[in-house]
Amino acid sequence: MTNLPDYRNEQLSFEDRARDLVSRMTLEEKISQMQYEAPEIERLGVPSYNWWCEALHGVARAGVSTMFPQAIGMAATYDPELIEKVADIISTEGRAKYHEFQRKGDHDIYKGLTFWSPTVNIDRDPRWGRGQETYGEDPYLTSRLAVAFVQGIQGKDKKYLKAAACAKHFAAHSGPEAERHEFNAVVSKKDLWETYLPAFEAAIQEAKVAGVMGAYNMINSEPCCGSKTLLIDILRDELKFDGYVTSDCWAIKDFNENHKVTNSIEESAALAVKNGCDLNCGCAYASLLKGYQKGLVGEQEIETSVIRLMLLRMRLGMFDNPKKVPYASIPYEKNDCEEHRRVALEVAEKSLVLLRNKDGFLPLNRETLKSIAVIGPNANSRAALEGNYCGTASEYLTVLEGVREAAGQDTRIYYAEGCHLFKNSMSGLSQKYDRLTEAVSAAERADVTILCLGLDAGLEGEDGDTGNEFASGDKPNLALPGTQQELLEAVIETGKPVVLVLFAGSALAVNWADEFSQAIVQAWYPGGQGGRAVASLLFGDYSPSGRLPITFYRSEQDLPDFHDYSMENRTYRFMKTKPLYPFGYGLSYTRFQYERPVLSESAILSGSDIEVQSQVKNTGKVASDEIVQLYLQDLEACVRTPKWQLAGIKRVFLKPGETANLHFTITARQMALIDENGNCILEPGKFRIYIGSSQPDERSEELTGIPVLSADFNVTGSPQEMQR
Length: 724
Description:
Strand content: 15-25%
Oligomer: single chain
Mean pLDDT: 97
Helix content: 25-40%
Structural class: alpha/beta
Strand order of the largest sheet: 9-14-13-12-10-11
Largest sheet: 6 strands, mixed
Number of strands: 26
Distance between the termini: 48 Å
Number of helices: 22
Low-confidence stretches: none
Shape: globular
């Protein structure tokens, strides 16, 4: 025991062990460990390790795992506790798979414990293809779900991490995808701290996230993966982040090739390291030795990064006796087990959003329906269940399969593709609309048509990671692609009732469908169990409870220029037009009645919190979850502030006639505003609190018929600067 090197001594702190290990490495060995494909250092007993692993909504790209709804769908649950449970399952399966791979000597990409998830960027524009990876457009909701996800991934052990989460992409990254390698996002200090940074701040300071990934683009003329402002001034100095930073993949070579802020790959690598980017996903750090030899970067700066990387691997238990690492004994059998698939179904059910239900058309009655038409390019599509950054499910239930299962043997199911997802015909030699006649014939013979339209991750996603023929991962507009609109109109013209099920990770402008269909369900990309969840909702096996984490605009004409990163006229917090479907909106099969909120005080001293109490009652005939939303409005702000913004959420389950008591605390920090210089200021003045099933806008009340109740209070005293 006395001959053990310090880095092998499990009685010492991880920090001391990491420093000792790195001190024994040559410069070349140190540099090798800063690349995502870190090779073995045999003489020191350091095994090879590939840092690149994905787990956005299940362990991804590493074979079979439980496939949960895409992140934007999980956001629609408004349920941090459920998302933490999902992340805990993901890290359980990640551990189960990792240790099995290790036993077989398989150290390949995607098979480690450093998960480059979650994506906590704000989805500021529905045209962005990667909006599906986010938790939506609101900083508060994104923060709560980010914290929950990180905590679920990293576990609760005081010594070891279950797995390592990584908040990305730091910061202010949300398209355009086609220009991301050279794009410069111009962002004010106010928007940066008011909108783009809060979720990163929460993940770092509350959840102690292990990693942060930089973005491809520049912010205010600094490339994000080499930005002193972002990585040193904000991340390390202000937010006190002590984990590791990785580049996005091949982002560092953009410094010289596209951003043109350096003249060579050696300069690019040196700039990234000097400003705190510890790990390179890509090839730039292969040039670090030349950069060192040219005097562009010092060995101490390199060593600082390698210590952070070795420290994290030690926190994951990679250098310790597996018997002492609590997560190393998770058996392979826990991967994709029945228990986990049941949770995936539950999450899918809670993610679905009922957008329209004319005259209570839904739920469908199994006893009276003799025939159902299931039509559309997404009706029997596995791709429509998956979303991007996905694993492989052991069971896929499409809507067609789900309806067949749910409807019963005596109901005739007619199926027709209707059209291609985005092309004008299904066959290259066919005329345009070659599947339309079949779809109309099926609809004419059915009591009801379930029409499955929208997108899949081949049409929206990451540049270079999609089959998108239109816009490099982004959407060119908010319309249904290809001939889907013509299919929709033809099926509705049969005169038979139509339920539209939309698969998409973003908002579509389905104005015509809103006017003429009986019902619309937003299904997102609901995971392997998605078709079962949709069918169960349609037949009333449970009441829909999902709420929109994004705004559905009526047209792209309502949006600012895609390149404009100002939040002016963006998202529900600042938009000036009336949306088709607002953020926070979603219908139920029952009705809820709220009591006016009661505040602990009518006036509080600046810096104090305030308590809010209310009640909600299920006044309908169906048991259901309800998502209670609390919004805060500053009525006397001296600068531009959000119209109102989400400040509290609670999911409650109520049987008919049952009442729930609600309690929220609004903190002094939530009352503060961000001024034009990015300072956090708490001003005295009048504030208003709203509580209900939606935000307090005109369109939400028009759609739900339920007014949002409010109460006012005053903050007294002097203005004070607060910690952001």
